Every structure is written in C-alpha cells, then in structure tokens.
Amino acid sequence: MPQEQVLTITSTILFCWIAFIIAWERISPYRKGLKFFREGFWIDLVWYTLIQSYFLKILIFDYIIAPMQRHWDLSHFHFVSNWPVAVQVLFFLFTHDLYIYLFHRFQHSNKLFWRFHEAHHSGKEVDFLAGSRSHVVEIIINQTIEFAPIILLGADPMVIPIKAMLDAMFGMFIHGNIKVNMGKLKYIINSPELHLWHHANYIEVFHANFATKFSFWDYLFKSVYDPGHAPGDKPENWGLHYDYPRDYFLQHAFSVKRFDEQKLLKYRWFSWYYNLRPQLMGLLNKALPAKLKASVQQTDTTKAANKLPEPVILAPQEENILQ
C-alpha cells in the first residue's frame, strides 16, 4: 500500500478517535463538571500538540535518526523486515512499551529526569489532551528510542504511521476524563481508572501506575495502585503539590532553574509577555459564539494574571523527591 494512502487512513482513524473520545468524555465523565476549555487547554493544544510536535518531528527524524541511519543501518540483516506488518507493529509496540514503563519509573525516582517529566503532571484538570504536555527533552529521548529501531532495523515504512497512530489513541484514552469499567481487561490494557490515579496528588501514587499501553507491566513489577475508587475532585487532589508555571516557555525554564513566576511580574517586560496570552484570549473571546465565550472566559482570561490559592499539600515534601 502506498505510504500516502497509509497516512490518509491512519489520520482519518485518528480524527474519528478524537471525536469519539470527546463525545465519551461528555457522556460518561470520570470527573463531572470538567470543562472542555479547561485550564491549560490552549497551551496543550497550540504549543504542545501542534507547534512542539511539528518541530520535534523534523528534529528527531531529519537531524537525529537520519544521521544514525547513515552510520548504523542494520536493515541488511533483515531482523524484522520479513515479518508481516502486523507482527512488526506488535513487536515494536510491546518492546517500546516495556522501555516506556522502565524509563517512566526511572523519571519518578531521579531528581534530574523528574524535571523533564514534571510538566506532564502539572495539569490539575486531566483530559484527552493532557497527555500531549511533555517536556521537549522527554519527547526527544522517548521518540528517538521509539522510532530509531524501526528505521535502523529496516521495518516496513507502514509501521511508523501505524505505531504513531496507536500511541496517540492510547495517550488520549488513558488520559481521557472517562468513566469506564474495563473488567478483567484492566490487567492487560491500561485504562483511565489506573492512569488518572497516576496524575493524582497523593503520595501513594507518586511511584505507581507507570504503564502506558499495557497495564500488566505494573502488575508484573508490583507498581500498580488500584484502590477501587476515584481521587477527589478538588484541584489539590490533582497535579503537582507545588506551584508550577502556566506558560509554555516558563515551564521549560523551570526545569533548569526554579523560580516564582509571580515575583517576575515586577519586571515590565515580563508582565507584558505574561499577560499577552490572556489579552489575546480576550480578543478571541469577543469573536466566539456566546456559548463558547462563557467557557473560554472562565478558564483563560483572568486566571493567568492572578495567583492561585496555596494548594493543600497532600504529599509531605520531606517524603518526596518529586519537586
């Protein structure tokens, strides 16, 4: 099948899946009352999903993997190229998921690598789009290790778009604000009921539920946390237990140097930059239909300029390195 046709089919499936997940969140929400245009929605969509993904795709495939292929092309050994495409997809899906589990677990136990992962946990309103929020360094590491073997081992070119589509579908599903009972499948396939606990601000889950696609890694390596009920609905029950910047660039700067973004507002240039997005959102708000306007107004126009109430710390800092 021509590669363009594969891209068309995988893109179509992905867009249909997005519509399905959005509808599912509205019909059967895990946390009731979570708005579609929730806090951080536009940063996750515009910066992380569209802009960052576009540029990192070029960087990873053209400037990291392509040079690697010129030096370490192993396709002539035909390790996987003679396998059916479905087997190739399953092989890379399984092996990469094991790597992701181990690396994810390592990130939660290492202070340096936690700084490249904390952005992913910073959202206090988790939905299908929240999985896209990942630090640049984390994406470069994970996607290079994910796609380089596929190319270096000479797998069928169809494997890349199919694997990427499955990654996106699983990512939206496990982060989706969806109330779903997987039954005994929860021991094999990861689900929101396990992964949303991973995003909760409870010390019991700071080192639990690391799996992404296959939950059996957590059961196998005894890192599963499944109390049989959901976390609380309050903001302090979710995300990080310490203040975290709202701005995309500040989130990346925070991984290098800790600071209080509210104190930076005394500088005129920073105040102008910091309030630029709320002002643009205000202009957008005027152009939106009334129904969407109310939702956007509640989430984005004024929150960025005001300091949040101090969150309740459910996890004692002295017992946790994740800060």
Automatic annotation (TrEMBL):
Keywords: Lipid metabolism, Membrane, Oxidoreductase, Transmembrane, Transmembrane helix. It is a multi-pass membrane protein. GO terms for molecular function: glyceryl-ether monooxygenase activity; iron ion binding. The keyword ATP-binding does not apply. The chain crosses the membrane at residues 6-24, 45-65, 85-103. It is found in: Endomembrane system. GO terms for biological process: lipid biosynthetic process; membrane lipid metabolic process. This is Sterol desaturase family protein. One of its GO terms (cellular component) is membrane. InterPro entries: Fatty_acid_hydroxylase (IPR006694), Sterol_desaturase/TMEM195 (IPR051689). It comes from Mucilaginibacter celer. The lineage of its organism: Bacteria, Pseudomonadati, Bacteroidota, Sphingobacteriia, Sphingobacteriales.
